[in-house]
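Chain A, query sequence.
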Amino acid sequence: MMAVLRNAKPHNRAPSPDTTPSAGVELQAVIQQTPAGLAIVDNDGRIIEWNPALEQLTGYSFDEVRGRQIWVLHSLFSDDEESAPRFNEQNVRRVLRDGPLTTAGQPIKALVRHKDGTPRWMSMVPFPIHAQDGHYLGAIIQDITAQRQAEVQLELQARRAEAVARLASRLSQDLNIEQILAVACQEITRAIGISATIAQQYDPAQDAMLVKTLFAGQDLPNDPALYQPISRRRFLEMRERYGDIIIIPDARQVPGLVASDIQQVIDIRTIGVIGLEYEGELLGAITLLNLDTVKTIAEEDLSLLRTFANQVSEVIAHARLFEQVRSGRERLYKLSQKLVEVQEAERRMIAHELHDQIGQELTAMNLTLDLCKGLQGEELAQMLAEAQALAGNLMDEIRELSLRLRPSTLDDLGLEPALAGFFKRFTRQTGIQVHAQFTGLDRRFSAAVETAAFRIAQEALTNIGRYAGVRDACVTVCYQQGELILTIQDHGRGFSLDFLNDRDRAFGINGMQERATLVGGYFDIQSQPGAGTTIQAVLPVEHPVERRRHDR
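Chain A, predicted structure.
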């Protein structure tokens, strides 16, 4: 119908409401029987033909529209932002007066409201009619709702694909986790048409998802501290109840869901939450908020949200891996520096022992033997006995120095005898009783694994002797299912794990961790002030240890 008016040709008279163009009976039969909708208007914009097919398309009979000017039926186009303004009286009369604005035969699409209220897309092809009694304008009208819906769906899919590609491109430009979450919030808010998106990151220390960043399409407090964290347990319970994507259609209907102080500031209505997971590990969550009105989140939007969540999760996992590699390199650099320092300190210790202890013993023995030159009998025997005692002391000191550097029993007899000997010497030197339990050590392990286990036990007990303030320590070493598990426990002073952040002060602990890591193992330490310390190293005998099996 719109197409008819836009191709109108001015003429001098308007036919009466009952007038139709001059046509034979055959033409009338064609008009009535054509399967496409057909409408004809006169030069005054009045409807003079409205065939049965068009009655079916619009729900209006010819009797209901006969003789009515087209702008009276503008409500037919009330849902179409483009078509409705064109059908007011001013525009219609201008088209009738000034002539066509488009090429004849060009289809025009418009959203038409059926009489029953349902919107339908129509395609209208206008054409002029020249009759003996004047000029008229007609339009062939067809229902293209299905085609239009397919076009809209394709456009929507194209926009979503573009959003996914844009997000992937932006995410690839940064490996900072908070920046990744900020970008995700922006893209999700715009793509789904939601009021705001909040990104939360899982914090194992608090066992909760903490708000890290948010993006709002409208006014919204942007201080993450205002939004309460979601505990991991509550999140999993809600996901068990609502599904992989938690949708709360109206938060007003769920008392206590939104904190009262937040609800006083903003009217949160619809809430959607999806977890960020990678290889079964919970990384965080994305929360959608719609304010003031309830929003229906379509299945297509949920699918898009899953795609976004998968993208973000993978990038976060890669960013964490990158951070671990970077941090590992820094630790390796600092460890290398420390190792050089330790090596120099060990050399100074050996030099000190050789000069101050062994050197003195050798000097004393040399002097004693020199005195023997002019002696005989009992005096000679006495001096030789002193020289022999000095030699015995010298042998003991050399043996102790050798054991401190590396016990020969570790290479000759294996891990259990080496540890047992070390525990005895440790008890003799410190007075701390070591309660040891060995299981499954009736076999040899690789030199690397045995050395790592021995050095970790040595460092752990040395720390207990220096700092724990205890008289007992417990050590268990067991081999099971392809893993050598070493556990050292004391009930002494303990310390805050924040101490581990100071890598310079925690060098000994970091050294134990590095030893375990270098053989493909896992190291864990648990401690609290006043509650003692437990150290566990899991060293692989066959294959590298899967860390997640031992996460606490």
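The chain has 16 helices and 16 strands. Residues 176 and 346 are 41 Å apart (CA to CA).
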